Amino acid sequence: MADFPGNLQYTAEHEWLDASTPAVIGITSTAAEALGDIVYLELPEVGATVTAGSVIGEVESTKSVSELYSPVTGTVAEVNQAAIDDPSLVNAEPFAGGWLIKVDVTETGPVLTAEEYSALVGG
């Protein structure tokens, strides 16, 4: 059974976010495992406006390229340069050092609890 941190919220597209200000956003361990070895991240720039449900970047792995969707509307406050420099951090620590961006949130899109997300992915 997969273990998803209960303090986070999740999307059906396999992103997570926390309740901090600015909100930290990343992809779930389920997404990281399905992608395989992540080799490249394309993320929005600091100051960019993101909209809940819209594509905000890409994750490229040895298997495929997947789009990233924003779980929130707001302004990008920080980008995880360490993950850009070493995308394998997303595989190694999807809920910690492998976070992707921080956003000053004005609105949150549809999100799931850890239990709802676990049920969605069969965890």
From TrEMBL:
Alphabetical keyword list: Lipoyl
InterPro entries (UniProt xref): 2-oxoA_DH_lipoyl-BS, Biotin_lipoyl, GCV_H, GCV_H/Fam206, GCV_H_sub, Single_hybrid_motif
Modification N6-lipoyllysine occurs at: 63
Cofactor note: Binds 1 lipoyl cofactor covalently.
Record has Nuclease as a keyword: no
Domain of life from the UniProt record: Bacteria
Cofactor(s), by name: (R)-lipoate
Gene3D superfamilies xref list: 2.40.50.100
All copies of domain Lipoyl-binding, residue ranges: 22-104
UniProt cross-references to PANTHER family, sorted A to Z: GLYCINE CLEAVAGE SYSTEM H PROTEIN (PTHR11715), GLYCINE CLEAVAGE SYSTEM H PROTEIN-RELATED (PTHR11715:SF3)
Quaternary structure (record): The glycine cleavage system is composed of four proteins: P, T, L and H.
HAMAP family tied to this protein: GcvH
Family note: Belongs to the GcvH family.
Function: The glycine cleavage system catalyzes the degradation of glycine. The H protein shuttles the methylamine group of glycine from the P protein to the T protein.
Protein name: Glycine cleavage system H protein
Species: Oerskovia enterophila
Lineage, broadest ranks: Bacteria, Bacillati, Actinomycetota, Actinomycetes, Micrococcales
